Amino acid sequence: MLALKTLKVTQLFLAKKKEPAPATAALANGAIAHTIDFDDTHMPSITHLGSSLVATTFALGEELNSNGKDIIEAFVLGFDVAGRIGRCAMPSHYKYWHPTATFGGIGAAVAGAKLLKLDSKQIEMTIGLAADAAGGLRYGVDNGDFSKSLHPAMAAMKAVLFAQLINNGATGPLGILEYSSGFLMPFLRNQTLSHYLIG
After folding, report:
1. For residue 63, what is the enclosing H or E element?
2. Cα separation, 199 vs 143, whole angstroms
3. Which of 17, 27, 136, 191 makes an SS bond possible with 157, Cβ 3.0 to 4.6 Å?
4. Four-residue CA torsion sign, 152, 158, 160, 166
5. pLDDT digits (tens, 9 = 90+) for 155-167
6. Which of 20-34, 147-161, 168-182, 184-198 has the highest mean pLDDT?
7. Euclidean distance between the first and final Cα of the chain, in Å?
């Protein structure tokens, strides 16, 4: 309830009506899903991907009037990408990071980009923004405070925002996953993704 009280519907400048932005809806739904632990577990990556992916695809899908097929395709693509990246990081990643935040954010960004029908370069830039903004320490999980619930919520909110930014002409980093100072070094301990991206 704290999240719902905090996320009041606001009047946008010169807007004709009050309505929640898709990113705000994604934040609230992601927090609710993970607070009540009503989410799945992708065991190879120890990640609750559903909480951020459902929050992203439902919020953005509603905004875009997407059909069920498009929402399911976006969800599955995001799940697949996040799962592939995540499984190559275990078990070392789980020592310090909450993979629901780190990999969930990338998967949700892919799903958002897919719903917006972005091209491959735009999808890579959306992934780049999500990877650059990845975070979520294990401390919140171990400590049991609200930060645990915010991990998939923030991942979903940022995914919607990043996909919309790229769709509207913003740019994001290309090649961030395997770049020498990119995502792999701090999050995956310099492992390679190539083995997991096949098949």
Report:
1. helix 49-64
2. 38
3. 27
4. negative
5. 999 999 999 999 9
6. 147-161
7. 42
For residue 99 the two structure tokens come to: 């993979």
Other CB atoms within a 10 A radius of the CB of residue 7 amount to 17
The first and second tokens of residue 126, run together, are 């959306």
Dihedral (Cα; 132, 27, 106, 104), 10-degree rounding: 120
* Domain-wise residue ranges, the chain: 22-196
62-71 long-range contacts, CB within 8 A, separation 24+: 62/22, 62/25, 63/22, 64/115, 64/116, 66/115, 70/114, 70/115, 71/115
Single-letter amino acid, residue 157: M
Q: Which amino acid is at 109?
A: A
Structure tokens at 178: 């395997």
Bridge partners, residue 97, by sequence: 137
Token pair listed for 55: 């929050």
CATH assignment of 22-196? 1.10.4100.10
pLDDT per residue over 39-93, tens digit each?
788 888 888 999 999 999 999 999 999 999 999 999 999 999 999 988 888 888 8
